[in-house]
Write a structure and sequence with these properties.
The chain is α+β, with helices and mostly antiparallel strands and 417 residues long. Helix content is 65%, strand content 10%.
């Protein structure tokens, strides 16, 4: 309602100003009689008031329902505005001209001007309508699932902005659906990999327990070996279930870090101490070095230790006997970088960019050797990125591999919880 009153006030002020200017020009140029001047002023007032009223009514209620197309609406607007303008001119001319010949000539010129105005309105409306029809047709194709639909952008007017906005929306939809398909494919691959990794240990545990339960195996040493193997398989299943739980927490947005200031050197030392027996069992040398001046970092210590343990375990799996694995931490300014380097067989360059994808498995010989559903590196990536850092790998076949990650000295506050 306030907008309506503002429009009315603006129209009345504009009418008063314009009428004052017109009367001043007429008086200065033609010196009309007083009665003609009064009649002209009253007519301009009535004509201007009618124009303002029609304009506000059109804005408030819209054009009549039978005017459905853009071409029709532009034609009505052109006829109304041009007709009012020509009516004003005709009336003023009838007051000022004495010759009927001049009035007839003026009437013919006004009729011609009206016709040309209608032609121009139709021509412009056709151009605009054609552009809008292209957008409508494209929107219909997009709704049918043709996400590669785009609209030709012509000009920088509102229709061009609409076309550009439509193209941006279509591109985002296409990218979103492509991402959704990738996630769905990754989910299927994870389900397949996890199903395989669950089935294998479960079958092994079942076979060993059935052998013991059925009396097929009675030798105490064999029974102890079977039970020890079953325990290891159960631990493997537990780790796999924990990995799946972590991933589900990340996907659901429920993942939270428990941040506290901790020493990177202590995290490395504890990890090395825990992994050293596993490395020594396959004749690997495990060593660590923390450069001087590495400050404490605000981190979720348990999860960063899990990241480091995962990287060291991967290095142990892929490094042949009598090789070495080194861990190093150093200051890089606004963050601390940790590196795990091995002397293993290395990783082909084409696989480096896919290492941290879910369910990624390396080439068959490495997969058979290492096993696993490929969830560990994906979880490590999620942990590091939640701290505001990044993780990556560098390698060449036969030259070993280096996995690195960074921990900002001031992690994002949004990551805490």
């Amino acid at each position: 309602m306030h907008t309506l009153w503002r429009r009315l006030l603006f129209g009345l002020v504009a009418l008063a100003v314009l009428e004052g200017i017109v009367i001043a020009i007429v008086v200065a140029a033609l010196h009309p009689p007083a009665e003609d001047l009064v009649a002209m002023a009253l007519f301009l007032l009535a004509s201007g008031g009618l124009t303002i009223g029609l304009g506000i009514a059109a804005q408030r209620f819209g054009l009549p329902a039978w005017v459905r197309t853009l071409r029709g609406k532009m034609l009505v607007i052109a006829l109304a505005s041009t007709g009012l303008a020509l009516a004003n001119i005709a009336f003023i001319a009838s007051l000022m001209f004495l010759s009927t010949h001049d009035l007839a000539l003026l009437a013919a010129l006004l009729g011609f001007s009206l016709g040309m105005a209608v032609f121009v309105a139709i021509a412009f409306s056709e151009t605009t309508s054609r552009s809008l029809r292209e957008v409508v047709d494209a929107a219909r194709r997009l709704s049918e699932g043709r996400l590669d639909t785009r609209v030709r952008v012509t000009g920088g007017d509102e229709v061009g902005e609409l076309a550009a906005a439509f193209n941006g929306m279509a591109q985002r939809l296409e990218d979103g659906f492509a991402r959704q398909r990738e996630l769905e494919q990754a989910r299927r691959e994870v389900v397949t990999a996890v199903s395989h990794d669950l089935r294998t240990p479960i079958a092994s545990i079942r076979a060993m327990i059935e052998s013991i339960n059925d009396g097929v195996v009675t030798d105490p040493d064999t029974v102890r070996r079977y039970l020890k193997t079953s325990q290891k398989e159960i631990e493997h299943l537990t780790r796999l279930v924990n990995d799946l739980f972590e991933l589900s927490q990340m996907d659901a947005g429920l993942f939270r870090l428990h941040l506290e200031e901790a020493s990177v050197g202590n995290v490395i030392a504890e990890t090395v101490e825990g992994m050293r027996p596993q490395a020594q069992a396959v004749r690997l040398k495990l060593q660590a070095m923390v450069d001087g001046g590495v400050p404490p970092v605000v981190m979720d210590q348990r999860r960063i230790q899990r990241v480091l343990a995962n990287l060291v375990q991967n290095a142990i799996r892929h490094t042949p006997p009598d090789g070495s694995i080194s861990i190093r931490a150093f200051d890089i300014g606004d963050a601390v970088q940790v590196q795990v380097t091995d002397t293993g067989e290395g990783i082909p360059e084409g696989e480096l960019g896919r290492l941290f994808q879910r369910s990624y498995r390396q080439e068959p010989s490495r997969t058979r050797k290492a096993g696993g559903a490929g969830l560990g590196l994906s979880i490590a990536k999620g942990f590091v990125e939640a701290h505001g850092g990044r993780i990556w790998a560098e390698s060449a076949p036969g030259m070993g591999a280096t996995f690195s990650f960074t921990l900002p000295k001031s992690p994002r506050q949004a990551a805490s919880g």
